[in-house]
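Regression test case RT-17, inverse folding.

Input:
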């Protein structure tokens, strides 16, 4: 229970919050990876997700335990088909069977709104995978049409930022020449079906790759002088926005100016190996908390100022079985016992009951959620306060940031 507040919120303001907050919630998403053997049971994850104000979850599979646990919560889901399923999904009958068993079976109680077919396929440089991607997406969409689910569930795929040949300045964003034809066909599919274009973007990789050249404040959304795009004259005060607008420019360069771009992964590790610069709890706290504040402000990028940010933070938990450098196992906002990996400005939730039999989630593979090392190509080729515990008043204020109420409460408390 929250301690009595020496400056209680007035009853009129409380009524305002209670009745009007739900319509103002920014669409914060979170990636729920399960490459671990010590995570909480899915039913104990529900309050953790709610504690950070997340309304959307991206899974790397279609774990039935998770989908059942979140039934009737209103949380929207992207479920995923791993790269290993692409060849099978080309078969219409297999695609329809998968959709029946992994999507239709949970509707409408669990709000599944999207299916991600494959993850970062184009940057594996695997011809077979690449050739199977679009046919698999089309087959899954056809299954949705046949089952009369295509109006509520879309089909997409997530890309690494490394599909860009050029990303600086943002106005010069362009896709890799060898991928232009493939990307064009995929974007055409998005336009015909009304599905989003997903990008995994990690400013952390740019900083880790060249910490002496890349401004830490610029990648952590901290106050800084920023950069000005010499072509568009737009000012950027953080790298993520520059990366997003580079994708917008790349899409425009192939004739698509109005595609919905969503950031399906972005985050910062709280721990890493000795050679992984910047992987600290304080930097992770600044990146993710500042990012959530930006999302809560419903503020667009310089190139798309009136478009809400559609971002999925990576990730919900530290995952102890992920391969690769130490950072890969430390992207979580939460530790496996449900405690915060670093102060998030929200109340702590007990979620210590673990599912010890879970060693990766149904259908999960290590490659399905590991951010690609190829994103760390440097800066010019970019492919709040202290960490001390917060008073109940400050905790409440930070939580309300995600609802766009900061200014109202700021004025109320004269902070």
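Golden output:
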């Amino acid at each position: 229970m929250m301690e009595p507040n020496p400056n209680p919120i007035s009853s009129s303001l409380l009524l305002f919050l209670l009745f009007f907050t739900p319509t103002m919630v920014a669409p914060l998403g979170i990636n729920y990876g399960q490459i671990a053997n010590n995570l909480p049971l899915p039913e104990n994850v529900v309050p953790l997700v709610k504690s950070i104000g997340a309304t959307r979850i991206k899974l790397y599979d279609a774990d039935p335990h998770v989908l059942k646990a979140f039934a009737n919560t209103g949380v929207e889901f992207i479920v995923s088909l791993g790269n290993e399923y692409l060849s099978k999904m080309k078969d219409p009958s297999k695609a329809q069977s998968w959709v029946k068993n992994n999507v239709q079976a949970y509707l409408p109680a669990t709000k599944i709104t999207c299916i991600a077919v494959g993850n970062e396929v184009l940057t594996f440089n695997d011809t077979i995978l690449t050739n199977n991607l679009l046919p698999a997406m089309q087959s899954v969409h056809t299954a949705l049409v046949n089952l009369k689910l295509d109006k509520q569930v879309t089909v997409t795929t997530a890309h690494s930022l490394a599909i860009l040949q050029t990303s600086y300045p943002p106005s010069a964003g362009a896709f890799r020449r060898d991928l232009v034809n493939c990307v064009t066909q995929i974007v055409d599919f998005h336009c015909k079906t009304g599905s989003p274009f997903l990008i995994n973007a990690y400013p952390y990789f740019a900083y880790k790759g060249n910490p002496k050249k890349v401004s830490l404040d610029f990648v952590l959304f901290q106050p800084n002088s920023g950069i000005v795009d010499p072509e568009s004259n737009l000012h950027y005060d953080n790298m993520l926005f520059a990366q997003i607008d580079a994708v917008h420019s790349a899409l425009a360069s192939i004739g698509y100016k109005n595609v919905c771009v969503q950031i399906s992964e972005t985050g910062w590790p709280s721990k890493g190996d000795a050679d992984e610069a910047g992987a600290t709890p304080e930097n992770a706290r600044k990146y993710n908390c500042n990012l959530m504040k930006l999302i809560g402000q419903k503020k667009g990028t310089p190139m798309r100022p009136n478009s809400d940010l559609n971002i999925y933070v990576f990730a919900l938990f530290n995952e102890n079985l992920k391969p690769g450098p130490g950072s890969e196992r430390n992207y979580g906002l939460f530790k496996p016992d449900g405690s915060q990996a670093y102060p998030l400005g929200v109340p702590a939730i007990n979620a210590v009951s673990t599912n010890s039999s879970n060693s990766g989630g149904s259908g999960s593979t290590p490659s399905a959620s590991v951010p690609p090392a190829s994103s760390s190509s440097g800066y010019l080729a970019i492919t709040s306060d202290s960490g001390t515990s917060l008073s109940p008043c400050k905790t409440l204020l930070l939580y309300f940031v995600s609802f766009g109420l900061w200014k109202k409460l700021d004025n109320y408390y004269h902070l």
